């Protein structure tokens, strides 16, 4: 009983430490302007330390989300507080 609890705890610790996405590591981050990127430098460093490939993009310009029926990005992060919905 104790061995199974210990093994389960160890397995959860290993999984939590890895913290990799099951869907991929390509992340698109949409910002109001690229000048805002400096405000989130700790976030970028954390993502990159976890082997994410982070692409920064301004929300005002178009971006291609799929190409040849395949997703270009696995994750989408909106950090554009000034954007207004229609």
From TrEMBL:
Pathway(s) per entry: Protein modification; protein glycosylation
Gene Ontology terms: biological process: protein N-linked glycosylation via asparagine
Subcellular location: Endoplasmic reticulum membrane
Pfam family, one: OST48_N
A cellular component term, taken from the record's GO annotations: oligosaccharyltransferase complex
Boundaries of every OST48 N-terminal domain copy: 26-85
Record-linked PANTHER family: DOLICHYL-DIPHOSPHOOLIGOSACCHARIDE--PROTEIN GLYCOSYLTRANSFERASE 48 KDA SUBUNIT
Protein role: Subunit of the oligosaccharyl transferase (OST) complex that catalyzes the initial transfer of a defined glycan (Glc(3)Man(9)GlcNAc(2) in eukaryotes) from the lipid carrier dolichol-pyrophosphate to an asparagine residue within an Asn-X-Ser/Thr consensus motif in nascent polypeptide chains, the first step in protein N-glycosylation. N-glycosylation occurs cotranslationally and the complex associates with the Sec61 complex at the channel-forming translocon complex that mediates protein translocation across the endoplasmic reticulum (ER).
Family indicated by similarity: Belongs to the DDOST 48 kDa subunit family.
Name assigned to this protein: Dolichyl-diphosphooligosaccharide--protein glycosyltransferase subunit WBP1
